[in-house]
Amino acid sequence: MPIAVPAGRAEPPQGRKNKNMFKRILIANRGEIACRVIKTARLMGIETVAVYSEADRDALHVEMADEAVLIGPAAASESYLVIEKIIEACKKTGAEAVHPGYGFLSEREAFARALADAGIVFIGPNPGAIAAMGDKIESKKAAAKAKVSTVPGFLGVIEDEKHAVKIADEIGYPVMIKASAGGGGKGMRIAHSTAEVAEGFGLAKAEAKASFGDDRVFIEKFIVDPRHIEIQVLGDKHGNVIYLGERECSIQRRNQKVIEEAPSPLLDEGTRRKMGEQAVALAKAVNYDSAGTVEFVAGQDKSFYFLEMNTRLQVEHPVTEMVTGIDLVEQMIRVAAGEKLALAQKDVTLKGWAVESRVYAEDPFRNFLPSIGRLVKYRPPAESSVSGVTVRNDTGVQEGGEISIFYDPMIAKLVTHAPSRAAAIEAQAHALDAFYVDGIRHNIPFLSALMTHPRWREGNLSTGFIAEEFPQGFAARLPEGDVARRIAAVGAAIDRVIGERKRKISGQMIGRAVIRERRRSVWLERSEIPLDVIREGDGFVVRFVEAEGSLGQPHQLLSSWLPGDPVWQGTIDGHPLAVQVRSVPNGFRLAHHGYEVAVNVFTEREASAARWMLEGNKADTGKKVLCPMPGLVISIAVIEGQEVKAGETLAVVEAMKMQNVLRAERDGQVKKIHAAPGATLAVDALILEFA
């Protein structure tokens, strides 16, 4: 299906075909955004060239493009970030223009200028606009000059930790330390005290240097209980700029967006217009001529302040496409080719609601630490548009591919669009339940749990949502109530299907009818749910055993599930349901709505014996500090024999450009250190142990 949007794409002015339209473009990026650009280029009849590092030799974007060029080793600093190699690839393949995607070189003024010098068109804003807005410090100065409301802060050069502390003390806590050249949550720290500023300043500079080659940071006041709302703008080279509504991006973890939606449940039409007009005024002030995003921090009272401008396509652009019917990638290409915008502000209307979840290769049960490895199974929900509900999946991976330590751990962006917010959320929850990934850990259980969270569903959001609702992190939970009963019912149905298949294989049914015991005890871990299950036509009828021993109301389960299918898809009493199925010894694991539990289906006799079985003891690793993810040891902050207090830094490990601080969970004495700075460790490798 077309990836773009439910509505049609805007045509060139006066319906004429642009004779200057590019015949071939190069995408200076990788992963899902490279695939995304290729899809739209293909719809426009434009040939594409992919570039790839040695680590991406077998990547999906390489397979999709018409031509592909190897540009260097796995490290981005030796491949995707080398301007000369991108230009050389353009000349080699005859590419007339370059789409930078997001990240990498997308907001580098030097890249746009180098392309222009080589006679190659940059599919993005002009270098002057990038210089004015792409740098977070300079953009705030420009916004202040344009009389745009900005958050109090210090925009000058910060000399050292002492200077940073002095600035923070003057602004007042909490403060945010943020990379000037960055984005995506990298090089960003929130500090609530002098000590946190001193530590966060160094970490932010190091991350900024590693991610963007620029270690400048600035400090600004952190607005308590804020919302993150951004306005999508679109300009051309003829002075026209419009805004395409807003996106709510308040659901964040460590300043990294997790879920986005459009429109925002906070804004009314008047506030939306004010924010949009302010964003357009700022864009016009710097002669902005492409797709860009003006970000605001908003109070719960609908007050808002300019935060920064991203001079590129945003990761979350699909939700805007879904509610406006405008393909932003296509518009960027047309603008770069010299076309006027075919849309005026009055033509922009928001229809329905869209929700996007970022599916990452990270383990939510281990503080969201990165996970790498091969995608043994990758079965996303089918893209579709049925009865006003659209499911879209933007991805850059495929089954058998590998998630590498070298790049961002994004697997996919799952987007749903429906007439209302509630319907879009319900569609997203169902699609997440049907999204099956094996071989690596991923954050789908967490995303599924968020979709059913009452506060999220109410739209009562802030950037502190995850920290407030999951203060101890995200842990495995036993399902209760209706969710537990749904999982138990599906488990009983699955057990019946497996049993029927086994009997057919053994021939037990030949020649005589066999009456099977209907009563089952379904165990979700050690929690028992007794029920009665019987085959009825193409489905099953389940009745739960009530407290007094009687059977409850019948529930009809219908599904075409067969043994080996990774997802049980069907209905319970007519309501759609998706449950992920993984085989384990003597049973299976079922995942639904953020819960993942071992399920055993016993007869009454088996259950009575199982109740006597003791649980095995887990190994005690309380005195050991293990590497929580594959990564590089940046520093060890303690020595053998040292006494440490709970909360003190023990080591810093870097993975996927993020520096992760490992802290002591309790007071103790360091007995032995097993790893040294510079060492590359596997997950669960021993770093140090306590006496």
From TrEMBL:
Lipoyl-binding domain ranges (all copies): 615-691
Record's keyword terms, sorted: ATP-binding, Biotin, Ligase, Lipid degradation, Lipid metabolism, Magnesium, Manganese, Metal-binding, Nucleotide-binding
Enzyme class (EC, first level): ligase
Record has Repeat as a keyword: no
Domain Biotin carboxylation span(s) in chain numbering: 21-471
Domain ATP-grasp span(s) in chain numbering: 140-337
UniProt entry tagged with the keyword Manganese: yes
Gene Ontology MF terms in the entry: ATP binding; metal ion binding; propionyl-CoA carboxylase activity
Cofactor(s) it depends on: biotin
Any one Gene Ontology BP term: lipid catabolic process
EC number: 6.4.1.3
Pathway of action: Metabolic intermediate metabolism; propanoyl-CoA degradation; succinyl-CoA from propanoyl-CoA: step 1/3
Catalysed reactions, semicolon-separated: propanoyl-CoA + hydrogencarbonate + ATP = (S)-methylmalonyl-CoA + ADP + phosphate + H(+)
Name of the protein in its database record: propionyl-CoA carboxylase
Protein species of origin: Rhodopseudomonas pseudopalustris
